[in-house]
Amino acid sequence: MIRNIACVGSGPASLLFALAVNTQSKGQAVTMFRRTPFDKNYTPGFALSNNPRRDLQKRFEAMLGSALPFKRWQQADVIQRGTRTMIAGELGAAVKQGSLVSGLAKALIEHKCPLHYIGDGDLERKLSDFDYVVLESADCATDDAYFEFEVTQRPARSVHLEATNLAADRVLEVAERGNSLFLGHGFAVAEGQASFFVEATSEAWSRAGLLKAYPEALSAFILDAFSCSLDGAILKFCHGLLPISCAMPRRWRSDNRILLDGTALAAHPSFLYRTELALDDALALAAAFCEGGAIEQALERYEKNRRAIAASAARASDLEMDWLENLHRYIDLPPSTFAFNALTRSLRVNHRDLEKAAPTFVQAVDREFAGSPAASNQAPPPPMFVPFTLRGLTLQNRVGVSPMCMYQAEDGTVNDFQLVHLGSRAIGGAGIVFTEMTNVSPEGRISRGCAGMYKPEHVEAWHRVVEYVHRHTPAKIAIQLAHAGRRASTALPWEGRNIPPPQGGWETLAPSAISFCDTLPAPREMTHADIARLVAEFARAARWSEQAGFDLLELHMAHGYLLSTFLSPLSNKRNDEYGGNLEGRARFPLEVARAVRAAWPGKPLSVRISAVDWSPGGSTIEQMIEFSAMLKEAGVDIIDVSTGNVVNTRRPTTGRLFQTPFSDQIRNEVKIPTMTVGKVTSYGDINAILAAGRADLCLLAKGHLAKPYFAHDAAKAQGYDLAWPKSYRGAEEFSLREES
Length: 740
Description:
CATH superfamily of the largest domain: Aldolase class I
CATH architecture of the largest domain: Alpha-Beta Barrel
Shape: globular
Number of helices: 25
CATH class of the largest domain: Alpha Beta
Largest sheet: 8 strands, mixed
Radius of gyration: 29 Å
Strand content: 15-25%
Number of strands: 30
């Protein structure tokens, strides 16, 4: 079936879509409509990544039948406080916008694709003759009515310029003027032509007197502030100072109208590969029209796929903007650490990616992280295998087994299951293994299968596990102490989630008589006597943990358990000194922390927090930064940063490394070590988190269930000699044969 398709746009994505359809399918026909001969969102050029999935360069040249003049990036300069960090390698590429647009237009003419320049008055009438209308958003005034963009405005403003040259193929420079920080970054697109962005918060622009400045004043400021990067360049304004915003489409389809480049719009305008995302959209939409079969199902798959990619781009974009808006956190980092942090700020590029592109730079970063002499000929260890010391406790590496409830205890007493479970993960090479959530009273257990430290016999049961780990492995072992609060007295998870136990339930406690969810009864509001008793029970459990031989103790103040519910305004509605503002809500958790610190005086103390509640009206990262500072003052040595689960109606924003940014903020605002957890799935990500200063330890939960020997697998993949326990040394010679 031949379908008539109209494509309205003036950027390269619309041209690429039309060309892809016209070259790949004999059953479709595309007619191009452009309002003007020029792209009104003009840019000198755009960046192309080394993403093997997209591989746009090869696909461009296959369709055009000729090579495009790509500018290869061989050097990047990161400039911070007058120090220039030079990075050499294969760092990506760019192409001039004009070169690509003219090449695409020429190819369309050769394929006899109709191209019409048309005014607004005639456009809608013309479009009514087509089966499908593809809209490139930058060119269409009507698209918002069809696709309902959800626009996010950032508290920052940007100016985009064309420059005749830069000091390197890619540059990133921070300029300090008074109390304000400005970020300049750009890239070369051809000899004598580069794209350059300058961004800062609105307050910074205002303090510099430039919020409403004329172009001449902006240009003079930028030439002076970024002289190291611009290297005597002549500037041409592409536009003036503009707010920074992102626009996420609520849908990619409205009747016969289809959005072309919604994925790109989800990222901010200076996002390095924004145009590449739009071009990838174009090729994906063309494939949907050309693949044959039912077109409606193909378009549904296109939207589903692009929605996921747009969400990923939006998250990376948000992280870049968060980094910009909080430059003060990073400006004092050592130069190479700052450069690494800046280049990985979106979390889309990790240690392994940079190592492939710029091995000499990454080796210098690793050497500095490990404290090795700069002139050393010996390769530094990967950051994850650099030892970490906290209050006299030294871990052999920075990978840990996160606490995971196993529900196998009997009246709080752990048994052979925990011995094998924790012992095998310790043999697997982790630097530290955490016990499951271990409760300080029988009423504090989530279920009847949960572990405890509330009876003398628990000390001996746990000592057996600790002694095994210490005797057979170099790993350290930590206990996590907790009270489940209103989430206690539930069935085992395989009996049902968030329901009372089939028999033998007990009364639950909380700061206020508010149930966790509709399927659980409301807890009893705690009295002052309850609070005093719980403080004493936590302190007793800490003393017994010392007797059991644990190396580190963690207090669980996250995930909607008792101490967490005191912190959250969603679950703490008290009117006494244990409620109200953050100081009041933090009173009981801090009393517990101080009592445990006194009962556990010489060893490291950790606290796990939920950095955000993911629910309106709940705890915010700003409040948890303030609370982390209180914990530091109370003698806590490290913060284990998690999020959510405080209320049952949560709205988390998940994804790869989704909790790492919160660890980053707390670590670099409070100046306290942190642990991060949450969809950490590769050694490249772990090394990047550590080398960039976003956390000091990385914890894996499900990853260690699936791969108990994760640390050894990662060491082997990186050529690092991580010693096996003597009885397991034969494993060093084993490799799995690939099946044909």
